């Protein structure tokens, strides 16, 4: 039996009580959390939906995105996940909370690579307590009925559900990638550290051999790599580049650059394989 | 000045750009697509460039040549796209008061352009294979020696 196709689900129906403002709408580097999460997930699965409560969906942040409105009673993320299964019963859902500012493409790729469709879910272990992280996880359709039973029995915590039912668990890719941001203080702290260590969006253009090996001529991605050297290591692992870093030059924003230069958000990076003009 | 051309290089028009009342001579170099490379029968070439950086670097090469040699004007035009055998891949022209510096500047420009500009060449072979020049062999395990400059990408100076 082949595995069910995977759709994406961004959970943006939270009450944001502790943040005291809509979490989906807070911004990093000029983009709302919801837009960042939606764009990132769209780079890996298709289609992607946004999970909202019945009284949401018409605000500026959520409008113009494909929505799945809660269709089952209750509160919390379990309701959003169950509503997605109700809308599309024959697909697995890559479920993502919208408030993970440090998430990177590599984390999502790791999940897709390690997917175990025979379990209820594939999830990362928390870097803090080793327990499953249910809101950056692939939920298989087989979990839908058990999730309904769990909720009927008074359960509301997706983490406890995964502990009980034994998801496939992966080691964390990096310690803070799944840290969420719940309060104004955490948001202020995340903003202050973002420029130094946070995930940022970069544009990469590929030419010649690099283009063929990457299978694309350009891409935009969220990465925690802070230098061209770290970025090359990450991309070489993803695409299996045959050239070593010391055989290449690198350009940032259309000028030759050091490999150890500190990258900034929205920098455009080009890896330059050995040249052969003339 | 340096520029790319997606179509055949018009050398007559390019040459006219170099005319100067003070110029007593003109030297040019043309690079052509040949039918063999390193023992393989070549059938055609494709040139690809990171144009934004290559144009900046090309202008810097030409400017360096003009600082180094007292010439009147210098111009380099490089093709991009698919080229058949015998087609012109690159053209360099220099005008100057005397012939010596025209030859020297012309040589300097073509040498630097080949080594510094982010331009890549894919050879298509009679065997049906193809390969990016300077990239394919150096990606193999280092069990045979190459000249060092085949390994290194361009070095900005």
| Basic shape of chain B | elongated
Query: How many β-strand runs of chain B?
Result: 9
Name the poorly predicted regions of chain A.
Answer: none
Assembly category = heterodimer
Question: How large is the share of residues in beta strands of chain B?
Answer: 35-45%
Question: Which secondary structure elements does this structure contain, and how are they paired or packed?
Answer:
The complex is a heterodimer of chains A (278) and B (157).
Chain A: E1 6-11, E2 27-28, E3 31-32, H1 33-42, E4 48-52, E5 67-69, H2 77-87, E6 92-97, H3 105-114, E7 121-125, E8 132-139, H4 143-152, H5 158-165, E9 168-170, H6 184-197, E10 200-205, H7 208-214, E11 218-223, H8 228-239, E12 249-252, E13 255-257, E14 268-272
Parallel strand pairs in A: 1-4, 1-6, 4-5, 7-9, 10-14
Antiparallel strand pairs in A: 2-3, 6-8, 7-8, 10-11, 12-13, 12-14
Chain B: E1 2-5, H1 11-16, E2 25-32, E3 36-37, E4 40-49, H2 51-68, E5 71-79, E6 81-84, E7 88-96, H3 99-116, E8 119-125, E9 130-132, H4 148-151
Parallel strand pairs in B: 1-5
Antiparallel strand pairs in B: 2-7, 3-4, 4-6, 4-8, 5-7, 8-9
Keywords:
heterodimer; A: 278 residues; alpha/beta; five-stranded mixed beta sheet; 29% helix; B: 157 residues; alpha+beta; five-stranded antiparallel beta sheet; four-stranded mixed beta sheet; 9 strands; 36% strand; elongated; disordered C terminus
What does this protein look like?
The complex is a heterodimer of chains A (278) and B (157). In chain A, helix 2 (77-87) crosses helix 4 (143-152). Chain A contains eight helices and 14 strands. By secondary structure, chain A is an alpha/beta fold. Chain A is globular, with a radius of gyration of 20 Å. In chain A, the strands form three sheets. Chain A has a seven-stranded mixed beta sheet, with helices on both faces. Chain A has a five-stranded mixed beta sheet with strand order 11-10-14-12-13, with helices on one face. Chain A has a two-stranded antiparallel sheet with strand order 2-3. The longest helix of chain A has 14 residues, at 184-197. Chain A starts with 5 loop residues before the first strand and ends in a 6-residue tail after the last strand. Chain B is an alpha+beta fold and 157 residues long. Chain B has helices at 11-16, 51-68, 99-116, 148-151; strands at residues 2-5, 25-32, 36-37, 40-49, 71-79, 81-84, 88-96, 119-125, 130-132. In chain B, strands 3, 4, 6, 8 and 9 form a five-stranded antiparallel beta sheet that branches. In chain B, strand 8 (119-125) and strand 9 (130-132) form a beta hairpin. Chain B starts with a strand and ends in a 6-residue tail after the last helix. Chains A and B meet through helix 7 of A and strand 4, helix 2, helix 3 and strand 8 of B.
């Amino acid at each position: 039996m082949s595995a069910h196709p995977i759709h994406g689900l961004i959970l943006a129906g939270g009450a944001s009580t502790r943040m005291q403002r809509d979490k989906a709408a807070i911004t990093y580097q000029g983009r709302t959390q919801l837009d960042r999460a939606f764009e990132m997930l769209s780079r890996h699965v298709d289609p992607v939906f946004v999970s909202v409560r019945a009284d949401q969906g018409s605000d500026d942040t959520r409008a113009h995105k494909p929505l799945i409105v809660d269709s089952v009673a209750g509160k919390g993320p379990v309701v959003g996940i169950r509503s997605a299964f109700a809308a599309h019963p024959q697909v697995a859902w890559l479920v993502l909370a919208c408030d993970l500012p440090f998430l990177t493409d590599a984390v999502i790729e790791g999940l897709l690579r390690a997917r175990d469709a025979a379990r209820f879910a594939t999830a990362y272990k928390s870097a803090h307590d080793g327990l499953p992280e249910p809101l950056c996880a692939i939920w298989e359709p087989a979990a839908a009925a058990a999730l309904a039973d769990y909720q009927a029995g008074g359960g509301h915590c997706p983490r406890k559900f995964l502990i009980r039912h034994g998801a496939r668990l992966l080691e964390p890719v990096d310690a803070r990638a799944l840290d969420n941001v719940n309060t104004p203080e955490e948001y202020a702290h995340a903003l202050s550290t973002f420029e130094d260590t946070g995930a940022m969006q970069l544009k990469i253009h590929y030419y010649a051999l690099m283009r063929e090996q990457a299978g694309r001529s350009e891409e935009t991605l969220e990465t925690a790599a802070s230098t061209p050297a770290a970025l090359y290591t990450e991309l070489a692992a993803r695409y299996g580049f045959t050239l070593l870093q010391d055989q290449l030059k690198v350009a940032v924003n259309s000028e030759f650059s050091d490999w150890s230069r500190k990258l900034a958000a929205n920098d455009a990076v080009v890896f330059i394989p050995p040249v052969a003009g003339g | 000045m340096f520029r790319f051309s997606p179509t055949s290089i018009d050398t007559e028009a390019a040459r006219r750009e170099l005319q100067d009342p003070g110029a007593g001579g003109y030297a040019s170099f043309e690079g052509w697509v040949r039918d063999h490379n390193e023992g393989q029968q070549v059938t055609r070439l494709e040139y690809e460039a990171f144009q934004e950086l290559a144009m900046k670097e090309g202008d810097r090469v030409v400017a360096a040549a003009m600082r180094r040699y007292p010439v009147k004007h210098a111009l380099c035009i490089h093709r991009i796209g698919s080229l058949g055998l015998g087609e012109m891949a690159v053209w360099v022209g220099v005008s100057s008061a005397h012939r010596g510096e025209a030859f020297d500047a012309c040589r300097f420009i073509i040498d630097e352009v080949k080594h510094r500009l982010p331009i890549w060449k894919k050879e298509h072979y009679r065997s049906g294979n193809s390969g990016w020049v300077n990239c394919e062999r150096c990606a193999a395990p280092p069990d045979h020696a190459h000249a060092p400059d085949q390994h290194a990408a361009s070095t900005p100076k």
